């Protein structure tokens, strides 16, 4: 077999219906990079009926894919893993979608000899998959069914510890060559909890204490297949094409993220000027918390707490219940913190996605205040609203969501779907239920304000969760909030950021977020760059969102980030690992091809451009409140062309102008602007003629324009 640097050369196919395993050669799928691209290509080949609209359908195919960076020391890339397939909980159709998680699973998968896993069919009874290097077994999981994610992992560790041979404390693993190999590392396990077992839209995949593939309801997909867990143990290695170049690139990248070793107080950082050089976006250590990072990561954005609660929590895991817990605690910070951490840990144990719960809970609270929810009300529920904010209420809610009991039964397909069941469609139209796109909440970044986030999301399949622009904006806004002058002028900021966007954009106008420029060709190209970058560099190469794209960096003397640089850019790491000669722009073109393939799958599922729109309130109502900030100062040009940071509250989207924007988007992507469907010429240009053939067989090939 030809040596492929960064890859192990084989892909694992597990057929749950037939209870068989086999290996495929990675070479066929190498052109897609890894992660999402490889997963989409595998899905296309293995899913024989791409018209299915519910991820619980046994014909659904799930792909779990690493990348050439997995298992290496590429900054903020070695531990990411991508999951793709038909999702659950997306509105109005559960589109082909993706999710992503960190930790050590993808690295361990590579060490075991595999670049990806394809899962087809459905087991008759609960099973778990045990991978030890090239030896793969499907075991009964009936003793695991009903256990939470932590109990499941601990039980599998115990089972394997008893089964495996020990040599002086080392575990003896099988090797394809017939020789013995050894490891001391616990198996990396990806599992579902009760939420996934009960096939609820909130079900996610959990690895270790709290690394979760939350979006897309893939826990429910696994539950529908009777798949409880995958355990991986490996003793191999990832071969690097040019190790010296990789080490040098990592050294060169230090200027963008390195900690100040002479300053042990890592809390000396913030948005109010030029900070010391801490690890970018880390959680500064305290006497009760230390940073936790994915394998090979330089950041440490997760937190381990000495309480034992909420280990490895970050962001939305703690945010979903924070405001309620603080109100319940009535100024007792220690009490509030304990509730918040325990609530986060509870969700991780149940395998329950926290992302939609926070805005959903706001809506439920509104229904309660309106007298519409209760034992004998329009929405029948026995939740004790007098205890909202307590840990007891969090237990009631998460249990209901995860077991389809109480209101959890109606919420099993998603929050927007529940609004329809309860006859509360107007709450979605008016924004009482703040889910602006595809049945998903707005994540704190409203599409009326954060254009690139909202426009990118609606042209794809799920919340993009892409922070490369708003990290910059938030630093500016926090400075203003605390009475500081922004550390850089708006025009200079726009100039630096857009210099990274060639060949799509060559003018700072792309970062003009003024109302007059919302639907401009420059913003359109900005969104296209964002989609293509995300599809390949983030979701296929698996560069972590908390670090990449690095467009503007306060830790560098000239504020220029690492993206595209000739020493520490994304492509420098890719080429050092794989031996390729890929440019940043080459990766963007691959991202365009991946989006085209995804769009073909959505088209077969029934998508038409008429379905691509925001909830009504995004068009009908001005943006009047932010989830985090009281204002939103974004870089804007005035009527004289001068740059300012302008508060962009109080605006809405214009339906007609956005429809025109969509038309231009589809034209630039080589799609039929009237339907949004891919055209043959575009697909053949991308060597996807076989995709065009299938679209034509289903009479869903776009007309040339």
Summarize the model shown.
With 705 residues, the protein is α+β, with helices and mostly antiparallel strands.
Would you write up a description of this structure?
With 705 residues, the chain is α+β, with helices and mostly antiparallel strands. It folds into three domains: 10-233, Aldehyde Ferredoxin Oxidoreductase,  A, domain 1 (4-Layer Sandwich); 244-416, Orthogonal Bundle (Aldehyde Ferredoxin Oxidoreductase Protein, subunit A, domain 2); 451-554 and 583-697, Aldehyde Ferredoxin Oxidoreductase Protein, subunit A, domain 3 (Orthogonal Bundle), CATH 1.10.599. 34% of the residues lie in helices and 13% in strands. It is built from 23 helices and 21 strands. The strands form six sheets. It has a six-stranded mixed beta sheet, sandwiched between helices. The protein has a six-stranded mixed beta sheet with strand order 8-7-15-12-13-14. A three-stranded antiparallel beta sheet has the order 9-10-11, covered by helices on one side. A hairpin with a 2-residue loop joins strand 7 and strand 8. Helix 9 (333-350) runs parallel beside helix 11. The longest helix is centred in the C-terminal third of the chain and has 22 residues, at 584-605. The chain is globular and about 75 Å long.
What are the salient characteristics of this protein?
13% strand; six-stranded mixed beta sheet; 23 helices; Aldehyde Ferredoxin Oxidoreductase,  A, domain 1; 3 domains; alpha+beta; 705 residues; 34% helix; 21 strands; Aldehyde Ferredoxin Oxidoreductase Protein, subunit A, domain 3
């Amino acid at each position: 077999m030809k040596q492929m640097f960064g890859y192990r050369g084989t892909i694992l196919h597990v057929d749950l219906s037939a209870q068989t395993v086999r290996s495929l050669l990675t070479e066929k799928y190498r052109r897609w990079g890894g992660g999402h691209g490889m997963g989409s290509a595998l899905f296309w080949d293995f899913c024989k009926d791409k018209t299915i609209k519910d991820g619980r359908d046994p014909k659904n195919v799930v792909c779990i894919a690493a990348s050439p960076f997995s298992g290496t020391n590429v900054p903020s890339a070695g531990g990411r893993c991508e999951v793709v397939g038909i999702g659950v909980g997306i509105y109005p159709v559960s589109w082909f979608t993706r999710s992503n998680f960190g930790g050590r699973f993808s690295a361990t998968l590579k060490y075991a000899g595999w670049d990806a896993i394809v899962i087809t069919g459905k087991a008759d009874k609960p099973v778990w998959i045990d991978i030890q290097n090239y030896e793969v077994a499907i075991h009964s999981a009936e003793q695991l069914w009903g256990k939470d994610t932590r109990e499941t992992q601990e039980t599998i560790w115990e089972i394997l510890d008893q089964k495996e041979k020990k040599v002086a404390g080392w575990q003896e693993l099988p090797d394809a060559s017939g020789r013995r190999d050894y490891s001391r590392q616990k198996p990396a396990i990806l599992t579902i909890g009760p939420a996934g077992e009960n096939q609820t839209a909130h079900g996610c995949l959990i690895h270790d204490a709290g690394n979760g593939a939350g979006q897309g309801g893939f826990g429910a997909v696994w539950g529908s297949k009777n798949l409880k867990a995958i355990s991986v143990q490996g003793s191999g290695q990832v071969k690097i094409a040019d190790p010296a170049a990789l080490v040098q690139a990592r050294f060169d990248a230090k200027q963008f993220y390195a900690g100040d070793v002479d300053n042990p107080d890592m809390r000396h950082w913030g948005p109010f000027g030029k900070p010391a050089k801490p690890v970018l976006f880390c959680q500064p250590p305290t006497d009760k918390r230390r940073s936790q990072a994915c394998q090979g990561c330089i950041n440490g954005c997760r937190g381990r707490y000495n309480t034992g609660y909420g280990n490895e929590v970050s962001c939305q895991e703690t945010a979903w219940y924070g405001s309620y817990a603080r109100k319940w605690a009535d100024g007792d910070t220690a009490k509030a913190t304990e509730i918040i951490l325990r609530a986060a840990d509870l969700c991780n144990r149940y395998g329950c996605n926290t992302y939609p719960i926070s805005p959903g809970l706001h809506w439920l609270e509104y229904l309660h205040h309106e007298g519409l929810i209760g034992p004998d009300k329009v929405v029948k529920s026995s939740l004790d609203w007098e205890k909202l904010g307590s840990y007891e209420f969090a237990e009631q809610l998460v249990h209901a969501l995860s077991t389809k009991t109480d209101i959890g039964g109606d919420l099993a397909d998603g929050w927007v779907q529940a609004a329809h069941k309860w006859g509360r469609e107007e709450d979605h139209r008016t924004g009482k239920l703040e889910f602006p796109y595809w049945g998903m909440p707005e994540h704190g970044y409203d599409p009326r304000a954060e254009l690139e986030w909202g426009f990118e999301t609606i042209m794809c399949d799920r919340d993009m969760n892409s922070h490369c622009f708003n990290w910059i904006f938030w630093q500016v806004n926090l400075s203003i909030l605390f009475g500081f002058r922004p550390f850089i002028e708006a025009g200079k900021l726009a100039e630096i950021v857009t210099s990274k966007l060639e060949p799509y954009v060559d003018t700072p106008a792309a970062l003009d977020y003024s109302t007059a420029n919302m639907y401009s060709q420059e913003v359109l190209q900005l969104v296209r760059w964002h989609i293509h970058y995300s599809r390949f560099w983030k979701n296929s190469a698996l560069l972590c969102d908390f670090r990449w794209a690095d467009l503007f960096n306060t830790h560098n003397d000239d504020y220029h980030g690492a993206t595209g640089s000739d020493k520490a850019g994304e492509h420098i790491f890719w080429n050092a690992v794989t031996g390729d000669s890929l440019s940043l722009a080459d990766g963007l073109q691959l991202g365009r091809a991946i989006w085209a393939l995804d769009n073909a799958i959505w088209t077969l599922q029934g998508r038409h451009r008429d379905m691509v729109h925001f909830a009504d309130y995004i068009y009908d109502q001005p943006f009047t409140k932010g989830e985090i900030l009281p204002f939103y100062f974004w870089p804007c040009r005035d009527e004289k062309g001068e740059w300012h940071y302008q508060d962009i509250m109080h605006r809405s989207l214009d339906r007609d102008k956005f429809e025109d924007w969509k038309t231009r988007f589809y034209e630039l992507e080589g799609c039929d602007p009237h339907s949004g469907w891919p055209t043959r010429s575009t697909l053949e240009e991308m060597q996807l003629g076989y995709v065009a053939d299938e679209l034509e067989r289903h009479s869903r090939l776009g007309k040339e324009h």
